[in-house]
Amino acid sequence: MGGLAVDAVKSHRTFDTQDTLDPQDTQDTQDTLDTLDTLAHKTHKTRPSRQPDKSLRAGQTHKTHKGHPVEKHTLFELNEYIRRVLALNLPDPLWISCEIAQIGHSKGHYYLSLVQKNGESDEIIARAEAVLWQRQFRQLQRKIGSSLASLLQEGMEVLLQASVDFHERYGFKLIIQDIDPAYTLGQLELRRRKILERLEAEQLIGKNRRQHLPLAVQRIAVITSERAAGLQDFLQHLQENPYGYQFDCRLYPAAVQGEQVSAEVSQQLKKIAKQRWRFDCVAIIRGGGARLDLAAFDDYEICKTVAEMALPVLSGIGHEVDEVLLDKVVHTALKTPTAVADFIVGRNMQFEAGLMQMGQQLSLLASNQIREQAVLLERTEQALRFLPLQRIQKQQLRLDSLANEIPRWYRQRAKTEHQRLSQLEQLMSLISPEATLKRGFSIVLKEGKTIASASELKAGEQFTARFRDGEITGEVKKQYTSSKESEYED
Amino acid sequence: MKINYEKAMEELQQIVGQLQEDSLSVDELSAKVKRAAELIALCREKLRKTEEDLEGLFED
């Protein structure tokens, strides 16, 4: 399509009209008109049905202050001439690439201010006014569909098919016949890639992903248009969740289509950021739309604001295939508002399921512990039943053994005493008078008493001598005592 | 009688230990065993109550 546009401009240039009509041209008026005249003749030859240069030929001769004779024309004559020149030379509509600088509409007609900027400096190097009549607009709407509204936005790069119109009173104007959305898509794609590179370079991609999204999401700041189709779906889906979760959604209205999207969404994000403690997350949503409708979400500013947002941002910009750049910088990108609602409900459900599982684990662990303690108590109780009895039994055994011990000890003692006694007896028997008699000694008795000294008996006294085998009785005839004995006697 | 489960259990174990080691005199035996029986009843009651409290806590 771009090629077509260039071709049209080239063919335009072969007529040299642009150079000639340039107001900065140094040639004087006469020369200009002459050239125009020649031009008109030339075109006349190719298009004989037209009636060119009538007014200019009829111009009056007039002398300038320098004395040169010149032809004089009225403004109308000039403009009428220009109109004819343009009509003859540019009879067919041309494809023109340009940017829409301004657009307004009135009574179904669209009035556009078209510009071309210098690629590097952004300086405007060409400007023209254009109109899209209501009839044409409707025709285009049938052909292009809802994308048309997206195309007709300030700042859009467009490829227009327009016929060049010049009116004596209203001047130069382009009458738009057709618009090629593919061209704009291509331009947008180029711009999109550049912005993506910039976002990557500035490490804005994945930045919002690092914001903590709570395990249970309940307080949601919703950015969308109040009239957006997706808003009702989103709210309804949240409200009708089967688990009975409650949600606190606060709407921050912003345009979701057109030139204002970036500014309004960014502004609302900043507003939300100031009271971020009130929210768990931000949801930017809008219903489905054609690719061109979503172009606003490829904007650098909106992406940067979202990436640097102090809350996690969820996106549900209704689309089927392509993702918008916004989807690359958000915490989590979903396809539609409904999908965002599902995501939030699902996340909450997961959280609750986790809690329930933990509860079950807790209750299992607790009952295990109770069971353990119960077993321990049981064992302790058994020990307490058994151990004191054991202790008493042991004491009893000790008493019993003592009871056994005592008689035994006693008997032992008695035996020992007996033995000692018999030993004494034996000893006694060895030293007894009977034993002495048996060994051949005899005992002398006086009046039944033992006599141990010769001095105890006097001559004439009766005594008895006892022997082993009997006694004899005798009378003392004479008494002898040894000196020793007498000493002893003294 | 304000005594927690932990302390009660500790005292119980101590009494059982003394019984196992035969370090209790016969004179203090009945008093100690009586005390142990009290502690066991107390612990039982506490366990039962805890179980009751936990029951159905995670049902909804």
Beta-strand share of residues of chain B? under 5%
CATH superfamily of the largest domain in chain A: Nucleic acid-binding proteins
Tell how many strands the DSSP assignment of chain A holds: 16
Name the chain pair with the biggest interface and residue counts per chain. A-B, 23 and 25 residues
Structure description:
The complex is a heterodimer of chains A (490) and B (60). Chain A has 490 residues and is an alpha/beta fold. Chain A contains 15 helices and 16 strands. Chain A has helices at residues 2-13, 17-21, 29-46, 54-57, 75-89, 134-144, 147-151, 181-201, 229-239, 261-274, 300-307, 325-329, 337-431, 433-438, 483-489; strands spanning 60-63, 69-72, 94-106, 109-117, 124-132, 157-167, 171-179, 219-224, 248-253, 281-286, 313-317, 332-334, 443-446, 449-450, 462-467, 470-475. In chain A, the strands form four sheets. Chain A has a five-stranded mixed β-barrel with strand order 3-4-5-7-6, surrounded by four helices. In chain A, α3 crosses α5. Chain B has one domain. Chain B has helices spanning 5-20, 26-54. The relative contact order of chain B is 0.16. The mean pLDDT of chain B is 83. The A-B interface holds A 356, 359-360, 362-363, 366-367, 370, 373-374, 376-377, 380-381, 383-384, 387-388, 390-392, 394-395 and B 5, 9, 12-13, 15-16, 19-20, 22, 24, 26, 29-30, 33, 36-37, 40, 43-44, 47, 50-51, 54, 57-58.
The gist of it:
The complex is a heterodimer of chains A (490) and B (60). Chain A is of the alpha/beta class and 490 residues long.
